[in-house]
Amino acid sequence: MAAPKIIVFGSLNGQLKPALTKLAALHAKNDFALAIFTGDVFAPDDDPDLTAELLAGSIQFPIPVYFSLGLCPLPPAITQKLEANQPICDNFFYLDKRSITTTAEGIRIVVLAGLLDSDANGDQATHQHLPSHSLQDAKTLRGANSAHVLLTSMWPAEIWTGSKVVLEPQQQAALQSSQPLAELCAALKPRYHLSASPDAFFYEREPFLHPAASDSDAVQSVTRFISMAPFGNTAKAKAMYAFSLNTADVSLPVGVTPSPFAAIHQHKKRRAEDSGSYSRFGALDPDPSDSYGRGHKRRRHAAPPPPGPDRCYFCLSNPNISAHMCCSIGDESYITTAKGPLLTSTIFADP
């Protein structure tokens, strides 16, 4: 089976129709499997005519298109549609700001959209259609364990470390980055980390190599970080990018660099090494005649990473969930019957 071809667009900022015209022309020549729109698809000021056409199904999407939040809220009519768990239109798929999605082609997309709000609480922290996320959101997504594509609104902190690609001072001053995103990228080791530039510039860092999780780990994980310029920008900076996702290719690309997240990897390594139980005799040389085993360090195995939503049989995002057992699905929770023997009075309300 051929590797699926993916095309990525920068922020459209309301230029949805011109972008789809361009997408249709490129798809006719390249046969893309899907498209990903980064940043803000809609303009900060809602265009009611565009929204009405979109919801009426008058705008055609030639291939499946995936998008999430950027830095601006979605138009109210779009939000209302999503909150009612209804599709916007054919081939146009919204990815929740903190989500894990596997496409029909088997492409695993992890999303953490919006800006980091360290003080987020209440609706601001949990509402899937507001352009912000919390520290807990970033920590929770580490449980996804892996991703083919990581889609974020912000940049990971220090992503430019060790790179020869020039990032102008004014460009660096304009962008917003965060350490939790760097930790998320280091944990998931995605093939591609996609974002949207805050100004009219395109940035593609050299591919970087993540350290092996253990000495026996033969798989070399490489990430490409790419930030798209806004679509239709007057500077004519690159706003479209296409690639083939060949998951079977484990060779190192030309120009690969060490990971810019070396400090994160070192911290994780030290934490794993320090996970053994403490012994006040640990500094002594082992004495084989000591029947109590003093002088021998006892180490506990490092705890395995938490299971991702795709391995939790309570998570609705799990493709193998027993959907036939769900009785009712609400905005914040759902009701399901218990696994095992059917009883007359046992149901679960899961958040």
Automatic annotation (TrEMBL):
What would be one Gene Ontology cellular-component term for the protein? post-mRNA release spliceosomal complex
**Domain of life the protein comes from:** Eukaryota
An individual GO BP term: mRNA splicing, via spliceosome
* Annotated segments matching region Disordered: 267-306
Tell me which residues make up the Cwf19-like C-terminal domain: 309-343
Q: Which CDD domains match?
A: MPP_CWF19_N (cd07380)
Please name the PANTHER family in this protein's record: CWF19, CELL CYCLE CONTROL PROTEIN (PTHR12072), CWF19-LIKE PROTEIN 1 (PTHR12072:SF4)
Query: What's the protein name?
Result: Cwf19-like C-terminal domain-containing protein
Species of the source: Ophiocordyceps australis
